[in-house]
Specification:
75% of the residues lie in helices and 2% in strands. The protein is an all-alpha fold. This is TetR/AcrR family transcriptional regulator.
């Protein structure tokens, strides 16, 4: 017969079990998402599947179905995570810089975006897929990033406006495309159009060129 202390100890263990499972679920979900992102960054969609993600996450594949609804749900979660990527890598604080003009804003965005892409292999993969793979999964990831960037710009611009006569939407699209190509070319071959993109000094020169182009358009 169990004594009173044993009964109390058992009740505590039983009561704690649901809480432990909740904590374990959160950790497992994060592990699955991290494994999926790592697999995509290293191997792309060609080897991206439930079994591969489960092996990398060290969990039963049924948990991916339970927590994410399968592969499509996992891609949706990665897309949602790209909004967090923009918030974390392209912060909305000005870093001590006074944004007095639209040119100030676009210069800051250009430099932050350049640095963020250079340090994120998964995002570089997504950029490469955008121009080489016209699949639903790639479109969803691309749209998630583009939407997050547009929201960042809308929040940050406030009353700042581009100069009259400048098609800011078109100009900014060209700026973003140039930054993306620079980063992809640097990662693939260490150069772009004969300009070296290997050392920190090389990238400083590229950043200076970007600033001059931005100021040339927006002042």
């Amino acid at each position: 017969m169990l004594n009173e202390a044993e009964n109390l100890d058992n009740s505590r263990r039983v009561g704690a079990e649901p809480e432990r499972r909740v904590r374990d679920r959160g950790a497992t979900e994060r592990a699955i998402l991290a494994a999926a992102k790592g697999l995509l960054a290293e191997e792309g969609f060609q080897n991206f599947g439930i079994n591969a993600v489960a092996r990398r996450a060290g969990c039963d594949k049924q948990l991916i179905y339970r927590y994410y609804g399968g592969l499509d749900g996992l891609v949706e979660a990665i897309g949602a995570d790209l909004g967090t990527w923009v918030r974390d890598r392209i912060p909305e604080d000005t870093g001590g810089m006074f944004l007095l003009t639209y040119g100030d804003l676009m210069e800051r965005l250009a430099l932050l975006f350049l640095d963020a892409l250079r340090n994120d292999p998964l995002m570089r993969r997504i950029l490469a897929w955008e121009i080489s793979e016209n699949t639903e999964q790639v479109r969803r990831l691309s749209e998630a990033r583009s939407k997050a960037l547009a929201l960042w710009l809308e929040r940050m611009r406030g009353s700042l406006a581009p100069p009259k006569g400048v098609d800011a939407a078109a100009v900014n699209a060209v700026f973003i495309a140039a930054i993306q190509y620079l980063v992809l070319a640097g990662a693939a071959g260490g150069q772009c159009a004969g300009v070296s993109l290997k050392t920190p000094r090389d990238w400083e020169k590229a950043a200076t060129a970007l600033k001059r182009i931005v100021r040339g358009v927006y002042g």
